[in-house]
Amino acid sequence: MGRKWNNIKEKKASKDANTSRIYARFGREIYVVAKQGEPDPESNQALKFVLERAKTYNVPKAIIDRAIEKAKGGSDENYDELRYEGFGPNGSMVIVDALTNNVNRTASEVRAAFSKNGGNLGVAGSVNYMFDETAVIGLTGKTAEEVLELLMEADVDARDILEEEDAVIVYAAPDQFHAVQTALKDAGITEFTVAEITMLAQNYVEIPAESEAQFNKMIDALEDLDDVQQVYHNVDSEE
């Protein structure tokens, strides 16, 4: 389980190092979910979830407000939500989620990022079945036992509650995300180190040193694409 948190930390650290890119992606996602439903997080659970995630990445309020106001203004800009699945070296599997206003452009760019770096794009369903959609919530200042007790008192289920280095990480079913967070907030916990619904691999693979650079280049190429929101993989990033 530790490798799951390690991969999440690695991905989050990478995004933290590219603040302008992550802010732009959150702005796009906030606009999309606000336009699809009500532009009010109290009545739009999808928007509320995105704003909770944005908080853990320190997205400025101005960017959030701008995206919501754009949705309120009835902008005719539309985005398609797409998922691509592909393969890298040594049995590595990759999932790419995108928001795009040009499907053909995005498909071409994603395919090129795979093929130019030793990977190949698969068909729908070729990779997804090897990952589990999982809510991941991290916090500090409590032990795993204390968090378990809090969730049990609130009658909230979690798949795992583990202490990972200096944080407690709660893994839960996606539909338990808000219940877990509400229970923790009711207990006085207001800051979270991570608050995501992510795709976690059921099994992880190791890549030999001679292939590692190429795999990392492929992942970087995918994450550098403007239309890409998230990239998930099953490579063990533990040192």
TrEMBL record:
Source organism superkingdom: Bacteria
Ranges for domain TACO1/YebC-like second and third: 79-235
Record's GO cellular component terms: cytosol
Single Gene Ontology MF annotation: DNA binding
Database matches in Gene3D superfamilies: 1.10.10.200, 3.30.70.980
Keywords: Cytoplasm, DNA-binding, Transcription, Transcription regulation
Subcellular location: Cytoplasm
A family per Pfam: TACO1_YebC_N
GO biological process: regulation of DNA-templated transcription
Domain TACO1/YebC-like N-terminal, residue spans: 3-74
InterPro entries per record: Integrase-like_N, TACO1_YebC-like_2nd/3rd_dom, TACO1_YebC_N, Transcrip_reg_TACO1-like, Transcrip_reg_TACO1-like_dom3, Transcrip_reg_TACO1_YeeN, YebC-like
Protein family per UniProt: Belongs to the TACO1 family. YeeN subfamily.
Name of the molecule in the record: Probable transcriptional regulatory protein HPT30_05935
The species this protein was found in: Paenibacillus agri
